[in-house]
Amino acid sequence: MKIAVLANLKENAPTWDGISPDLWDDLDSPKTIDSLVKALESGGHEATFFEANIVPPHSLIDKLMAYKPDLCFNIAEGHFGDGREAQIPSILEMLRLAYTGSKVLTLALSLDKPMTKRVLTYHGLPTPEFQVFEAYDDPIDDDLVTGGRELRFPMFIKPSREGTGMGVSAKSIVQTVDELRDRLKLMLERYQQPILCERYINGREITIGIVGNFEPPIAWRLSERTAPNILPDALTYLPPMEVDVDAYGESEAGLYTSRIKVDLVEDFYYICPAPISKELEHELFRLAAAVFRVTGSKDVGRVDFRLDADNNNTPYILEINPLPGLNPTYSDLCLEAYAAGWTYEQLINTIVDLAAKRQNLIPGGD
pTM for the full model? Predict the structure, then answer.
């Protein structure tokens, strides 16, 4: 097939005086793009990279119409707007071009962490209790504060619509109302968006990669807001990966911080497969499949969990990433695939095959 690789390079991102230094941390590097193109070529495809920006000189629409791809390999993060990860897929659908990965609604939903948590809560899927603040002095929900004006639980604060750990540091954990207010004020000023405050789960961080699709007729369904105990066989579950936060000392406060994901990425400490019981592994796979299902994810995704050390390692869902990083050296999904015995080329071309089958581009599609 003729495949257009669509992504946003950090080096091509707009810049201005006073820009936050972490604003474009979730954008891609030339190494990732080069690896993707070579992996696709190894699968017998013709592949060309296009900067995912409709503004000249990139002029994506004109270039795609001239290139006429059979499929677009989409990992575009976008630059501006609440639904920026959904912008390029929206354009592709207007142009009637097929693309890999999740569709417009899923990408807009998953970028908005509070909205995702509302969907999970509706379906009875475990996610930490939370509140969204649009002003630093918004009233705090009564059930989060004691009579002594102390938070009932340690709380965790992060921007609502960012990725790659943006805004996450040791200071993200707050213990008092005063700490909460101070952190909210700083985050609102820096990121200019609502801030998510959720109950802090003290424990291990595990991520589960999924490759596959629910195929009609969908036999595996959520019943009465409860995920069934049987795993759907339409999905492939990659080995659980644990972020070895203990390796970074007290400076990161046991969190998978922005500093770990960006500044220390070449010295990333992880354990894969994570040392967990088969029973817990099954439960994480079950919950990951349920999240994949209720968010309408396609082809590939990664679901992040925290295990509650204060409650028998009960898993809590943090979020789903339907556009997981694909850097072959350090991206979580790729490391999980390697632990499963896959090559990078196998991972990338499996995503292509799933997307092509789903959209009737190859025999055997729906």
Answer: 0.89
